[in-house]
Amino acid sequence: EKQAEDDNSPECSEPGTMDLKFTSSRKYISISVPSKSQAMSPHIKSVDDVVVLGMNLSKFSKPTQFFICVSGVFMFYLIYGYLQELIFSVEGFKPFGWYLTLVQFGFYSIFGLIELQLIQDKRRRIPGKTYMIIAFLTVGTMGLSNTSLGYLNYPTQVIFKCCKLIPVMIGGVFIQGKRYNIVDVSAALCMSLGLIWFTLADSTVAPNFNLTGVILISLALCADAVIGNVQEKAMKLHNGSNSEMVLYSYSIGFVYILFGLTCTSGLSPAVAFCSKHPVQTYGYAFLFSLTGYFGISFVLALIKIFGALLAVTVTTGRKAMSIVLSFLFFAKPFTLQYVWSGLLVVLGIFLNVYSKNKDKIKLPSLLGLWKKSVEERKSRTLSQTV
Question: Does the model's pTM come out above 0.85?
Fold first, then answer.
């Protein structure tokens, strides 16, 4: 009877409380478990849920998830690259690369705002000073990259963007005092030699080659090597969402570019030119921005489900396909030196990926291959004898 009275005590029946009370004869603990919707952050629906463009990939099998992600990456980024080169093929548009970046940042800000409105938590978690730094680096990455297309062929720009490892390693050596193994050094050497060879081929056969484009894309590469680390650190430290990062970084970057174009008197000529060709400029720029925004969503999903190793492999294949399509759809001079230098860069990328994933990638040694061939010959001879 005493125990029944204790169990029916009103002090233990109130939900949503956690009490620890002591009496002369006993102590009891009342714990209430919150509901599933209350226990999780509004940024995360479920631990295993991966939602891309409103589609929950967690409902599909692993092969189906891989097929959807790879299809999204190839489809959207191939269209992205095609439209980017198509815009710069418009007669007279090449000097307005910064204005294209301004329009692109404007569209990205709108897309980020729409996506942010679809989630429950709309608070800004990352400090404004951090966003100002990220926005500056984003402007440098995308603005210089777009502007470089006024001086370089699109394949040359893509080859440069594949070689982010080089500035990362240089910065690690001089800033952090890092030491790299022989595989990392070999990867950087392969990428460097491939870049030099590809650039020399471009300067030989391309009639509009300009060293200014190489300088611009190199600066964009350095900014791109820094921005990833800054974004990752900010999102982990402050638990910010992807939509928040896109909205604030690109909207602040939009203000930066607008201020710069206004001060340099580069806004009026660009607006006047684009108003004469609205479909080839604003229309293509909208699709160009939309496909880029969708493409990064599938890349992030690919990383989350299958890891960075497979994501790097897929994106490298996509870049190689972009170069092939560029030569097919847009008339430009071609030489076999492009092929050999491109393969050298791909070898450098593979060595970089192998260095970071030695435990996952086990390459067969020459001794192991020789022993295997000897065992196969012995088994073949034994079967013939029997």
Answer: no
**Exposed/middle/buried for 306, CB within 10 Å: 0-12, 13-18, 19+?**
middle
128-164: buried (b, 16+ CB within 10 Å) or exposed (e) per residue? eebbebbbbbbbbbbbbbbbbbbbbbbbbbbbbbbbb
CB atoms within 10 A of CB 127: 13
Alpha carbon distance 138, 260 (integer Å) = 15
In angstroms and rounded to an integer, the radius of gyration of the C-alpha atoms of the chain is 28
**CB atoms near residue 214 (< 10 Å):** 20
Euclidean distance between CA atoms 101 and 96, whole angstroms? 9
The length of the chain is 386
Q: How far apart are CA 146 and CA 142, in angstroms?
A: 6
pLDDT digits over 226-269, tens only? 776 677 677 677 776 667 777 888 899 999 999 999 988 888 99
**Which DSSP category does 118 fall into?**
T
φ, ψ for residue 131 (rounded to 5)? -65, -35
The separation between CA 134 and the C-alpha centre of its own chain, rounded to angstroms, equals 15
Query: For residue range 32-45, what is the model confidence (pLDDT) as tens digits?
Result: 444 444 433 333 34
Domains of the chain, residue spans: 51-357
Within the chain, strands assigned E span 19-22, 27-30, 51-52, 55-56
Residue 307 CB: number of other CB atoms within 10 A? 12
The first and second tokens of residue 373, run together, are: 């061939």
Q: In the beta sheet, which residues pair with residue 56?
A: 51
Q: Tell the burial category of 262 from Cβ atoms under 10 Å away from its Cβ (0-12, 13-18, 19+).
A: exposed
- Token reading at 91: 């007669």
User: ∠ CA 267-156-280 to the nearest 5 degrees?
Assistant: 40
On the CB side of 172, how many CA atoms lie within 13 Å of its CA? 15
Q: Three-state SS string across 139-183, please?
A: HHHHHHHHHHCCCCCHHHHHHHHCCCHHHHHHHHHHHCCCCCCHH
Strand 27-30 and strand 19-22: the pairing is antiparallel
Question: How high is the mean pLDDT of the chain?
Answer: 74
Q: What are phi and psi of 22, to 5 degrees?
A: -120, 135
Instruction: Return d(Cα 190, Cα 114) in angstroms, integer.
Output: 43
